[in-house]
Amino acid sequence: MPLGEFELIRRYFAAASCAQGAAGVALGIGDDCALLELAGDEQLAVSTDTLVVGVHFPEQADPFLLGQRALGVSASDLAAMGAAPLGFTLAITLPAADADWLEAFARGLDCMAARCGLRLIGGDTTRGPLSLTLTVFGRLPRGQALTRAGAQVGDLLCVGGALGEAAAALPLVLGQVAADGVHAEALLARYWSPMPQLDLGQALRGRATAALDISDGLLADCGHIAQASAVGLRIELEHLPLSVALREQAGAKALTCALAGGDDYLLAFTLPPAELAPLQQAGWPIQVVGQAVAGSGVQVIDCNGAPFVLSHGGYQHFGPSRD
Ligand code: ADP
Ligand code: MG
Predict the structure, then answer these.
(1) 248-283, pLDDT tens digit by residue?
(2) Contact between 67 and 189 (Cβ < 8 Å)
(3) Residue 277 neighbours by CB distance under 10 Å
(4) By the number of CB atoms within 10 A of the CB, which of 136, 202, 234, 297 ranks highest?
């Protein structure tokens, strides 16, 4: 049995002496961000993400879009914790110093940084196969972070918008399908310019009981909430928000995109039922897709209440779905 990505992290890194709790560390490995204690009543939220050519994006990727996407993906982890954005660092490995490429990449980065309210504060530049590591920093009032733990039986399971669109765009991104359909542009924008739900994350502070951002697919990511919160999550197929663009582009694969497609970078969270109406009335794009139940794991049920089984559960860099 190959070593899965999360088992690998658990065995070699989370179990290491240097990863054990310490004064000043409010939350370590295992959530969307780590939390460090600051003076006063605040905590610092930190998260790092790497994008590698040929794994996360194709070699010919448009550098402007890549700059946008790299920062959007990273900032999404701040949104998942309810943190207010502060700054980010950029460690970039480049095969060559191509001025045109760099100019476009920096513009893309700038564009997303302005949208997120993040400042570039440092980084590292080296030569090698193209890879990008962005570390984002945000701040939170102490004790108010949204973590993956905390969902209660009876809570509603919610998402921050229509699911699966980035996954439906993937065949277009990879050039497997001509990007000339009426929906291609909108879907490609969802892939290349994921808009981290930073404002929604902050609005959910003190309201949502658990949250994360969907990076590996709804099913796989809800599995993290279920595990960390020690509850079961039931997703109702008929309540999955599927856009017209998704249905028309993905056809029979629309449900698979919505349940198992990564890259949406929308928030998934649990809400006590009484919190829903005020948030929706305030205009937040919240869709209820299921609820937290007694038990464990994530179950999808169809409109007859029968279990719906999807063969592909979500993306892992090592382990079952890859090998
Ligand atoms: P996300 O999808 O939110 O970026 P991941 O699924 O990549 O989070 O990672 C899960 C958790 O494991 C996070 O808390 C992350 O910080 C931690 N993690 C991942 N890789 C390592 C590593 N090599 N060393 C220590 N912690 C790690
Ligand atoms: Mg995350």
Answers:
(1) 999 999 999 999 998 999 999 999 999 999 999 999
(2) no
(3) 10
(4) 136
Q: Contact, 134 vs 88, CB < 8 A?
A: yes
Q: Which domain holds residue 92?
A: 5-141
Please tell me if the CB atom of residue 203 comes closer than 6 angstroms to any atom of ligand 1.
no
Ligand 1: centre distance to CA 237 (Å): 29
Residue 315 included in any domain: no
CB 136 within 8 A of CB 47: yes
CA of 5 relative to ligand 1 center, distance in Å: 9
SS3 percent helix, strand, coil of the chain, rounded to 5, is: 35, 25, 40
234-247 pLDDT tens trace: 999 999 999 999 99
Chain segment 130-167, per-residue pLDDT in tens: 999 999 999 999 999 999 999 999 999 999 999 999 99
Tell me if 62 is assigned to a ligand binding site: no
Question: Is 32 inside any structural domain?
Answer: yes
| Residue 169 falls inside a structural domain | yes
Residue 270 DSSP SS3: strand
**Cβ of 189 below 6 Å from ligand 1:** no
Q: Which ligand is nearest to the CA of 316?
A: 1
User: Does one domain contain both 119 and 183?
Assistant: no
Strand order of the β-sheet with 156-159 is 210-213, 267-271, 156-159, 287-293, 232-236, 297-301
**Same domain, residue pair 275 and 228:** yes
Which ligand has the minimum distance to the alpha carbon of residue 27? 1
| 142 annotated as a binding-site residue | no
